[in-house]
Amino acid sequence: MGINANIRLYAVRIIVCCSIFLASLLLSGCNQPLELQISKISGPTMGTEYHISWVSDKRNSIDLASEKKNIHQQVDQLLLAINKSMSTYDPQSELSLINHNFNPKWQTISKELYEVLDMAAEVTAQSHKAFDVTVGPLVNLWGFGPDKSNDQIPEQAKIDALMAKIGSDSIALRQQEGLFQLRLGAPRYIDLSAIAKGYAVDILGNLLQAQGVDNYLIEVGGEIIAHGVKPQKQPWRIAIEAPNDDGRSVQIIIPLSNMGIATSGDYRNFFEQEGHRFSHTIDGRTGYPVEHKLASVSVLHESVALADAWATALTVLGSEQGLKLAEEYNLAAYFIVRAEDGYRQLSSRQFEQLRLD
C-alpha cells in the first residue's frame, strides 16, 4: 500500500486535459521530426498512480526506447524510496517507525523526510495552524480514514480525547553536523498525505531535468507540474474540475509552464446527517469538519509540495480567510464557492497574473 491516499480521496483530481491533446500530438507524430516525439510512462505509487509525459529529442526508435526504459526504471526506484520513507501503510517505513515508537530524544532522519516536514512546518505557521500533519487521528475518528466507518458524528468525549494528541508544535527539526534530525515533544501520529505526493512530483521533475529533459508534464494522484512547452512551442494546458457531486466537468482551463498545481475540495468525500453536510476536511484546531461554503481551491506554485499543502490549508480556512492569506503571502489561488444559484469564483491577484502571462 502507498501513502495514505485513501484519507485524501476527497482531493479534487485535476482533469489532465492533456490526454486529448497529447493523443492528437501522437497521432500527428508521423508528420513531425523525431525530436518532437512525446514519450509517456505511468504506474502505481502511493495508493494512486503517476503519469509522466515528456518531449524527447532522441532521433531514432532505439534511442527513444532506451531513454524511456531508463527513465521509467529511475522513476520507479525514486518513488519506491519516497514511499519507504513517508508511507503510513508500510509498518517498516521511516515515518511509521517514528509514529509507533515514541522517542523524546533527537533522532536522525533522511534528508527527504526532513525537507517535507520542514515545508509542512512553514505552511503550518503561515496558515495559523490550518495545516497540520498530525490531524490524521481526527480524520479517522470522523470516518474518513482508510477504514471508512459508518457516517456518524463521533462522541464529544472521543473528540476531546484526541484533541490532546493533535498539534505540530511537538515536532522539532534541526540540522547538526551534516545530519537531519527530528525530536518529538509528545507522541504524535504524523501523516504526510497532504504534501508527500506534491513532493514526489517535485523530485520527479528534478530527475527528468537531470536526464536532460526540459519539456515535461508530471502528475501523481492529481498533483501536477508542467515544465517547458509542448511541441510547436505551446504551453501545457490543465483543466480544473468543476465541483459537481454527481459527475466530472471542466470549470476552467489554464496554461501551465514551469509551474505546479494542486487542488483540494470536499465534494467527493462527505456524509450527511439530519440535513447537515459533514466534510472530510477536518480542522485540527477545532476537531470538527469545516462548515464554510468553499467547494474547492487550487494553488499554483513552483513547488508542488507547497501547492499541495497550501491547497489543504486554504480549504480549511475557507474562501474569505483563505483569499486574505493568499494575498498576504502572494499565493496564486483559485476558489470555487457554493452559492444559492450555483457557484461563484474567486481568485488572488497572483493567480490572475499567472493566468494572463
Question: How would you characterize this protein structure?
Answer:
The protein is of the alpha+beta class. It has helices spanning 18-27, 61-86, 94-100, 111-126, 136-141, 156-163, 196-210, 304-328, 349-356, and strands spanning 38-45, 48-55, 107-109, 171-176, 179-184, 216-220, 223-227, 236-241, 250-256, 259-265, 270-273, 276-279, 282-283, 288-289, 294-301, 332-339, 342-347. The strands form 5 sheets. Strands 1-2-6-7-10-15-16-17 form an 8-stranded antiparallel sheet, with helices on both faces. Strand 13 (282-283) and strand 14 form a beta hairpin. The model is unreliable at 1-33 (pLDDT under 50).
Task: Write out key terms for the chains shown.
globular, 357 residues, disordered N terminus, alpha+beta, three-stranded antiparallel beta sheet, eight-stranded antiparallel beta sheet
Number of helices: 9
Strands, count: 17
CA-based gyration radius: 21 Å
How much of the sequence is in beta strands?
25-35%
Shape annotation: globular
| Cα-to-Cα separation, first versus last residue | 40 Å
Mean pLDDT over the residues:
86
Major beta-sheet overview: 8 strands, antiparallel
Helices and strands, in N-to-C order? HEEHHEHHHEEHEEEEEEEEEEHEEH
Q: Class by helix and strand content?
A: alpha+beta
Helical percent range? 25-40%
Q: Any low-confidence stretches, pLDDT <50, length ≥5?
A: 1-33
Read across the widest sheet, the strand sequence of neighbours is: 1-2-6-7-10-15-16-17
